Amino acid sequence: MGFALALEQDGVPTIPVSTHVFARLAKATALAAGMPTVRNVFVPQPVVGRTASELRAYIEGTDPILKQPFMKGVLEGLTQPLTEEDLKGATFERSTPRFLEPDTEENLRQLFIENHWTDYLPIILPTEERVEKMLKGTSVPGDKIVGRLRPTAYREFWEFDVEKVAVNAVMAGARPEYLPVILACSATGISARSSSTTSWATITVVNGPIRKEIGMNDGIGALGPYNLANSTIGRAYGLLSQNLQGGSVPGDTYMGSLGSNWAYTACFAEAEERSPWSPFHVDKGFKPTDSTVSVFFGGWYTQSGFGPRETWKDKFIRCLTATDHYSPPLIVMDPIVARAFVDLGFTKQSLIEWCAENAKLPAKNYWDDQWVTTLVRPLAIAGVEPFASRLKAAPDELISIFAPETINIVVTGGETQGAFKMISGRLIGHGPGTADQSGPIGLIDVWR
Amino acid sequence: MAEKIRVHDPRGYPPKVVGKRLANRLQSLDGKVLYLIDCLFDNADVFMEQLRLWFAENMPSVETRIIRPRESWVDDPEMRAKVVADGDAAIIGVGL
């Protein structure tokens, strides 16, 4: 859609073709771009996996949205004279008030649900008093602009300030002392509510002194629902993402086919004191005394294991090669596992390099992946390494599927079991549909 | 009667939308250059090839050219410039 709108502005009549499930989203996107009459045509979903003859039938068949021959829409869209509406586009301003009209608690709760402003779990209503109290968690003025968010690359950015983040933090049940962490999440510009059909979620990792100051759990059940800070920071990030970016409504601003349970809340702290290795944020160039939040864009898969046992190498290779290759693994391991790897002679970096070296697949399997094909293959064709070399490989040649710098390890957990997980998590700032404003690792201290 | 309370609006600040006009339409596609832009979504290349064949069979006077951006999801000013310079119209798909 973005290309089509740009080409129209460049003076080239253009027809965007979408599948029918995107009709509402296409209309909303065109409206928000000021070009509501863009001449979109539609074919049935899906296109992926359909043969050439099946796609030809789409072309010769009926547009499922416009209810007319598909090619009629194409040809008329390129040749029918412009109407007055086509010429003027749509200019308008939307405003969101600071306060809603006063109402009863019951009615306001219903209003928040009807407007899709919640995650459908109970919320704390953001009264003036509660928001004021929340704002005491930061020295930064409430009217300071924090950043911009949008659900996907072709949608418009919405802006937000500190107070708006505080409002959503209240709704999530967070305490004021958590606000700097929540502000740091929002300031990355990475939406925890990407509209992608692939159901991305965000997983956030907190490092540095603030973990202990606000009582985060890095012990038993570190990834689970056993701590107010862990739970509400992750939830606040999700709520603020959907509300500050202009929505996350199925069919309009959210298209994830399956959705993701990681999207309810996913925030945990590293067990820095019990890890045999340097803290994650220190590996990334921060000082041990810095407090940071790292936003991993992922949640597609979770592999689980225990050990390392005698055959750990086989297990790791099975886990690594079973991943979705577009989303490298965030390896979360209990301190027991990390120490055992130290006993086997590994540093964190050498283990990462071992993983990258041994995560190999036949080239035909690597390339037969929808997102590798869609997002990586064009880079390979353009000569970008290491993708170009992977594309040159023979179909049965084993190729590396991850570069070491895309694999990350974080240590946390209660030492009741030598458990590890490999969780889909890209630490590159943005995936499809998000904006990377300040990088995927936010310094919390600037929001204290 | 239940007490009324005042709460904050949780939404961010939307940008002003400025209307943009569509490009002038063609009187006819006869003899025109029509770019078929494969947006790089999985199988979009097959769809665009079928569209090219449809024009070849049904409207041979239209010159179709398949073109691709450098990456998915990222603007490709060079590709757009080529379409603007050499093309009369475009179809892009399949995706959003």
Written account of the structure:
- The complex is a heterodimer of chains A (448) and B (96).
- Chain A is of the alpha+beta class.
- Among the domains of chain A are: 2-88, no CATH class; 107-303 and 431-447, no CATH class.
- Chain A contains 18 helices and 16 strands.
- In chain A, strands 8, 9, 10, 11, 14, 15 and 16 form a 7-stranded mixed beta sheet that branches.
- In chain A, strand 3 (62-63) and strand 4 (68-69) form a beta hairpin.
- Chain A is flat.
- Chain A starts with a helix and ends in a 5-residue tail after the last strand.
- The model of chain A is unreliable at 430-437 (pLDDT under 50).
- Chain B has 96 residues and is of the alpha/beta class.
- Chain B has a domain at 29-67 and 89-96.
- Chain B has 2 helices and 4 strands.
- Chain B is elongated and about 75 Å long.
- The mean pLDDT of chain B is 94.
- At the A-B interface, helix 1, strand 1, helix 2, helix 3 and helix 4 of A face strand 1, helix 1, helix 2 and strand 4 of B.
- Strand 5 of chain A pairs antiparallel with strand 1 (4-5) of chain B, so a sheet runs across the interface.
Largest beta-sheet characterization of chain B = 3 strands, parallel
Query: Which regions of chain B contain 5 or more consecutive residues with pLDDT less than 50?
Result: none
Structural class of chain B: alpha/beta
Secondary-structure element series of chain B:
EEHEHE
Percent helix of chain A, as a range, is 25-40%
**β-sheet strand percentage of chain A:** 15-25%
Q: What's the alpha carbon Rg of chain B, rounded to whole Å?
A: 21 Å
Oligomer class = heterodimer
Spatial shape of chain B: elongated
The backbone outline of chain A, from C-alpha atoms, is flat
β-strand number of chain B: 4
| Integer average pLDDT of chain B | 94
